[in-house]
Amino acid sequence: MISANASHSLDTLLARRAFEFDHANPILADLPKETSETISLAYGDADPRLFPIKELISSVDGLLSEKRDAVLNYAPVDRELTELVARRLQKRGVVVDEQNILITYGSSQILGLLPQIMLNQGDVVIVEGPTFLGAIEYFVTQGATIETIPVGDHGMDIDALADTLQRLAAHGKQAKFIYTIPTHHNPTGTMMPLANRKRLLSLAATYGVLVLEDDAYGDLDFRGEMAASLLTLPGSEWVLHIGTFSKILAPGVRMAWAYGPTPVMQRLRKFQSDQGAGPFITRLVSYIAKDGWLEQHINVLNSAYAYKYATMRDAMAQHFPQDVRVSTPSGGFFVYGYLPLDMPARALIDVAIAHGVSFLPGTVGYANGGGTHEMRLAFSFQSEAHIVEGITRLGEAMRVHRAQG
Amino acid sequence: MISANASHSLDTLLARRAFEFDHANPILADLPKETSETISLAYGDADPRLFPIKELISSVDGLLSEKRDAVLNYAPVDRELTELVARRLQKRGVVVDEQNILITYGSSQILGLLPQIMLNQGDVVIVEGPTFLGAIEYFVTQGATIETIPVGDHGMDIDALADTLQRLAAHGKQAKFIYTIPTHHNPTGTMMPLANRKRLLSLAATYGVLVLEDDAYGDLDFRGEMAASLLTLPGSEWVLHIGTFSKILAPGVRMAWAYGPTPVMQRLRKFQSDQGAGPFITRLVSYIAKDGWLEQHINVLNSAYAYKYATMRDAMAQHFPQDVRVSTPSGGFFVYGYLPLDMPARALIDVAIAHGVSFLPGTVGYANGGGTHEMRLAFSFQSEAHIVEGITRLGEAMRVHRAQG
Fold first, then answer.
1. Is the Cβ–Cβ distance between B327 and B188 less than 8 Å?
2. What pLDDT band is residue A1 in, cutting at 50, 70 and 90?
3. Contact B13 A176 (CB under 8 A)
4. Which of A358, B83, B144, B317 allows an S-S link to B125, with CB 3.0 to 4.6 Å?
């Protein structure tokens, strides 16, 4: 019997998982702070000069004048937005069942929900190293044991994946899902070749593992080409695909979509307590996207981001020491750098900040402590002038760091 | 060892909780469908004639012109919105620590998150009967065992609550939280008196149970009076308070807030994978609310909803049989009806739909099968003319049902 007079503490009321999450690694908190003088190349924000301000304002005007009640009251998920997502998937060759489309508050909502419906305590989740660190936190929150597969110049190392799956099976363990960003990878900017995509799905089917394809940068190809989504390849029944309006419209609208197998989508829908992004914002996105406007806007973005990448590439060639190797993305928001042994990223970032520039140390993308000599540079946010100045400062910081070493 | 050649099924990949939730009670699916001819009094939608369309359009214009980047890019939670919530709580007498305010995607996000951080499988959650059924689903999803406390003319029956807490303690069980809507209760429209609020908190402190105060209708008082939030009473350290912009601005913006004890708020923040409502929509709300506009707007709403309630009250007095008893709300969106023994709500709803009107059967608000002779009527959505016509039709349906019986 519990005494009614015992002194009580709120902590005794919390679930076990609340405490487990307290131990999540605060890697970002450990980084030196940017100042107002810093040219930040650290974060993958969109370029605000490319936001469609006029179109957003006129869309809100049109939308609220035309459909007040559906936009501002409680309402089911916007059918037009679901149809827009269906059409865009169909254009890429996916045979779409609209019932399996889920509209979400940004990709992060799915990254939070999926582990809830798939993971029991200790279940294995396979991720790339490096990867989008935010994702790992969501998986660990729900009790995941993380296995890391290295990423090379062609995305995830599929041989290493095969070895890991075999090793897990030999120990009687089954991975629940594999999280991958096959197209314009975050943070490395690499692209998984078609043959590797096929092998990935073949392994998923053989071992019975779901593949979570994060296609955040799928539309952002410098030449406007679309890589084959895993949804279009043999074994696609093992694929949960997520895409987002963050990069092609604006991150601030916080809207994304997921498409995958019925048993998974049904449960995701049930666990989505807020029923997906709200009526106002979903209808705003489908309203502005109509009549092909979104596809034209994506063309504009691709030209602009291609030019910004070229600006960063040329500046790096001019200002970085020869032994700093950088990736050669064909889309997305990021260049990845591999630093020489005498230039650990954690030490370099302090010098960089002192020189008025920042980057994201590679360690932030690893669940297993890797990436000590790696760095992510975003060309997405800064203006071309700031990209050139930022890379110039960073090259200087590298030389100063080396001279001090 | 798991054979690599075994035939695999996606179902084997899902977590236990995914299957538990499959058994959630589909009460709403069992109801007859409304048609385009139905005057629906079932749902608590806001009155679209009261939406501030012009102000929303001009706010979007001003906001996107003034603060493009903060509004459309990735951004931390809107400080101005947090300050707005803080000011509104302070005005009610709460001593506010801004760090303990969380902005969320509608109240439903909190109702989904709280059980995640508080419940281990089988933990007890105490709810009112009837209550907002959506809430129960979120609790059950995370493994809650539900205990129901009756609601009378003065809200939750505090004697029954005391008995339940004592019984649980005698069996060595501790309830994790008590979910209550003390002000303009959904669905009954009742108000918990101050003395009962104080007893509720005294019991919470004695037994060490969190109280989840859902204050969705707190601002909507016909005379513009605010009841004492549980946050302002002795024992407030056991209170998690949630409020929403759904009723005072527009449900479609999907925005709400939570305020409570640090250990709870810290964990809620960590588990909120999407970081709360997006930059665009949060900044739109704080922009439109500034300079006292929101408080003026709430005054307008209260006058309008008071008038709509009076319209429904008078129509019920004229058209309902004498032995149908109805609640007398002083705010909120709902009237609750208690039906005679020969008039079960589930049978009446079929006749009502045939007469072109609908209501919500009381059973929808009970986790324990109660409410068979109860009904909820919303005066919030329909125009005054439709309220009169709907109540006229419902009175006719009651007489027809009785004549058929």
1. yes
2. very low
3. yes
4. B144
Cβ contact A250–B72 (<8 Å): yes
ipTM > 0.95 for the complex: no
Three-class DSSP category at A369: coil
State the smallest CA–CA distance between residue A61 and chain B in angstroms: 6
Distance CA A239, CA A178 (A): 10
Ramachandran sector of residue A275 (left: φ over 0; alpha: ψ -120 to 50; beta: rest): left
Q: How confident is the prediction for chain B on average, in pLDDT?
A: 92
* CATH homologous superfamily for the domain B26-44+295-404: Aspartate Aminotransferase, domain 1 (3.90.1150.10)
Please give the angle made by the CA atoms of A65, A66 and A72, to the nearest 5 degrees. 75
Average of per-residue pLDDT across B349-376: 94
Binning chain B into helix, strand and coil, the percentages to the nearest 5 are 50, 15, 35
Q: Kindly report, as residue ranges, where domains of CATH 3.40.640.10 are found in chain B.
A: 53-290
* Nearest by Cα to A178 from A113, A109, A247, A129: A129
The rounded distance, in Å, linking the Cα atoms of B169 and B254 is 38
As a whole number of angstroms, the distance between CA B253 and CA B146 comes to: 31
The answer to whether B108 touches A274, Cβ cutoff 8 Å, is yes
Record: contact A18-B173, CB cut-off 8 A: no
User: Among B18-27, B77-86, B235-244, where is mean pLDDT lowest?
Assistant: B18-27
| pLDDT grade for B74, boundaries at 50, 70 and 90 | confident
Q: Answer yes or no: do B252 and A207 touch at CB < 8 A.
A: no
> To 5 degrees, how large is the angle CA A148–CA A150–CA A156?
105
pLDDT digit string, tens, across residues B324-337: 999 999 999 999 99
CA–CA gap between residue B229 and residue B255 (Å, rounded): 20
Alpha helices in A274-383 (DSSP H): 279-289, 293-319, 345-354
Residue ranges, CATH 3.90.1150.10, chain A: 26-52+295-404
Q: Which CATH architecture has domain A53-291?
A: 3-Layer(aba) Sandwich (3.40)
CA distance B227 to B205: 21
Query: Chain-centre distance of CA A294, in angstroms?
Result: 21
Q: Which residue type does B35 have?
A: T
Q: Which two tokens stand for residue B317?
A: 């007095």
Residue of B1, B2, B126, B186 to mutate when probing chain A, most A C-beta within 10 A? B2
Pair A20, B267: CB distance under 8 Å: no
Q: List chain B residues with CB under 8 Å of A174.
A: 2, 12-13
Instruction: Decide if pLDDT at A304 tops 50.
Output: yes
- Three-class SS of residue A214? strand
pLDDT of residue A97 exceeding 90, the answer is yes
Q: Do the Cβ atoms of B57 and A64 come within 8 Å? A: yes
Report pLDDT for A23: 52
DSSP string, B313-338: HHHHHHHS-TT-EE---SBSSEEEEE
Residues of A in contact with B117 (CB under 8 A): 14-15, 17-18
**Domain B53-290 is found in CATH 3.40.640.10:** yes
pLDDT score of B349 more than 80: yes
The verdict on a CB contact (< 8 Å) between B106 and A274 is yes
**pLDDT exceeds 60 at position A54:** yes
Q: Which residues contact B94 (CB under 8 A, 6 or more apart)?
A: B229, B231, B232, B236, B259
**Strand pairing category for A357-358 and B325-326:** unpaired
pLDDT in tens, B291-314: 999 999 999 999 999 999 999 999
